[in-house]
Structures are given as structure tokens and as C-alpha cells.
Amino acid sequence: MIFLNYEEIITNFEEITNHYNRSDQYFDILYDSISSTNIVKTPSAENFSVNTKKSGIVARSFLGSWKEVAIEASGDMNIIKTKIPKVSNNGNLIAEFDSWSLNKEIKSKIDPANVPIDEKIKRVREIYKYVKNADERIINVQVKYLELLIERIFVNNEGCKLRQVIPRTRVFVVPIAKEGSVVDYDYFVKSGEIGFEIFDSIENEVLDQAVKNSLAMLKAELPPAGRNTIILDSQMAGLIAHESFGHGLEADQILRDRSYLKQHLNKQVASEICTIYDTPSIEKKLGSYFFDDEGIKAGHNILVENGILKNFIYDRRTASELKATPQGNGRRESFAHPVNVRMSNTYFGSGDYKLEEMISEIKDGVMLVHGFFGMEDPLGGGMQCTSKKGYLIKNGEKTKILKATALSGDVLEMLKNIDAVSKDVLKLDGGTCGKGTEDMVPVTSGGSYLRAKNALVSPG
User: Considering only the top CATH level, what class is 6-219?
Assistant: First the structure.
């Protein structure tokens, strides 16, 4: 099985799928293949790992709950028919969705598979050396490079025949600076559905700015504590959209009565100038794809529109139970992990303010920049997000640079206090998200600049 091509896999999958009648039961089968390279360079170590085409198959049927079988790609597929029983008159236990077909492969400008590992290590070393030698105050540098090539083939007994091949690449650079007894840093990250050409966008000017940002942190002061008018950059806005708000919209949490947002559907949860989306269909972002791991087409989910909560985030089962339309948020880390309701690209829509206008109207405030840490609280609705740095705003001007700044309090209170959203082009930053501490999937989050009144900030 591991050596079969796409057409042969589809043929074998169709033969198994035809064994299960949709009117009697829902059935799907997924082929999953992941190749990865990970390189980490620090002053004390240089580590790399290469995993070539780890492949497997997972099949399942819905019989009131999911009955699921996972095997290595080289395994005996007849096990699936043995382990998943045929039943009668259970087809209506889960809703039926539209069938469709797709065979889509994103081609990198420079395919990482054609680049020797020595060349990849060389590029990481070059970044490390350039940043380390940029200033004598840079005492430590961390450079991380991650590439993934993911292929997924999906067939179900609703008529879906799907394939997607997606490259994902990420570079993370941390220059750590020291002057006297003060040690601090900023960071730079670049990611997307791209290949080895990611290094073409990391020019010396970009690295110079990363160094400059870290050096600036040596002069940073502690932020004020208490209620302030705040401005959030796209990364901080993304932390709010994803960690503080988005997890509470995952429909499995809704069904388990573990979300504070369950009672707020079709009610105001934010300022009327706020719109929040989750959109897996955006092109070339780390959290993007053509279909999810349940064969649902990647869509465009309007979560909040003009401040009103319009939708939750669904997989097949939760959409069926809540009589909703899924937008492609049933995701697995791999064939060996379960499907969960997961976010993709989660962000605030743009507004009509210029950033300069937003700042000029503030007498005393704080600007939080570079989202660094966020903690979810889908049951209580609390918020705890920290920026890597900030700026003090006095009399309409951005002044002193501030150390890490924490934003806390009630999520809905903060969202309802947003009084300005910038019209900047959407900016999304990539990372990974777990369901709890497991089942990691790639995501992005972001948006435009947000301004909110009466927000609770403190040293982070």
C-alpha cells in the first residue's frame, strides 16, 4: 500500500467504502502522509531530524459514536472490514453533506525535497552567524527551521474523492541581548504554505530589524498596572481571537456545556464595529487547507458579525447535532490521532481607522505588541494574554518602550469596549495549537489594530 499512487489508493478506498451503504451507516477512510525536517541552532547545540513519509490509514463509521480503525500504510486493509461492522438503518444518525471531488497539490517555488539537508543546515547557520555578529550585545541566538509536506487522500460513502498535498514551512529567530545586568529579547517569525524559498524573504534587512528590536528591549520599562485605554497589534488581536475567544466557540465544548459562549448565540458579544472570522480557505497561510480531515470543503466562517455571535466552529458530528453547516474544522494531527473541532485561520476583520488616528486620540494608554502567550478559559470566559513588549502612549504619541505586558479580565467586556479597528491589510502569524496539551495542528491568527477602553493591564 505504501508504494501505491493516488489513483491506486482511490481505487482501493472506493472498494472498501462500497462495502458500507450510506443509508445504513456513514463511513470514511483517510490516507495521511507527513514528511518533516526540523533544524534547531543555538550556541550550545545544533540538532536536526528528518522524517521521510510517515504514512498511515484511518477508517471510521458513525454508529452513535465513532468506531475507528488506524493502521500503518503498509498494513492489511482488510482489517478495516473486520474491525468496522456493517449495520442497518443507522444512516440517519449523522447528517449527510454534499459530495465533491478534488485533486490539488500546492507546488513550492523551491521544493524542499530537492534541497540537500546540508544546504538547509547551511542556511540556518548563516542566519545564526549574521545575527550573532550583528552587535556585541547579542549574547545568544536561537534559529529554528521546520518544514512539513502533508498529503491526505479522503473517500467516503457520500461520494467524496479528495486529495491535497500541502507544504508548510516556518523559520523562527530569537536574538537575545544583554547590557550590564539586563537581558531581554524580541523575536522574528515567518511561515506559510511555501517551500525552501522562505529563505529568499529573510534578507539581511529583516534580520537587522530583528536585532534592533531585541536591543531596544534593553531599555524597556515596566508597564503600568490598572485600567487603561489600549491598542493591540495584529499578533495580540490574534491571541484574543484564538485563545481567549475562539476556543469557547468549538462546538464540542458547546455540546459538553463547557463554554461560556453557549448562551450567547445571536446575541451581542462585541462592539458593533467588530467582525471575527475563521477561514481555512485563505491561500498560502500556515493554517490553510482545501478540505478538513472529514472531507468538508474549507469555507469561510463568520463567527461574529457587527458584534453579534453568528456561528460556532463545527466538525461533522457537532454540525449534525446542532443542525449547522460545517466550514471544514474537523482536524487530525495525523492518522494516529482523533478528529477534533479545531480552528484554522482565526482573525479580526479590518475597520476604517488609521493607526495614527487611533494613537492620536489617546491621552494616556498602552500599546501591546508582539503577542507572546495566551491562555484559554472556555468555561469561565476569562482572558490572560501577554505581549512581548509594549509602548506607553502619552498625549496622542507613542513614547517609552515597555517590557512584556499582560492583558487580563473578562473577554466579552474587553470585546464590547473596542471603539476603533484599523484598516490595515490582514496580517496573520503562524504557529501550532493543541487540544489541551495534545493533538497539535498548524494555525494562524491575527487581524488589524484594535483599540479598547478600560482594559486591565499589568507587567507580564
Answer: alpha beta
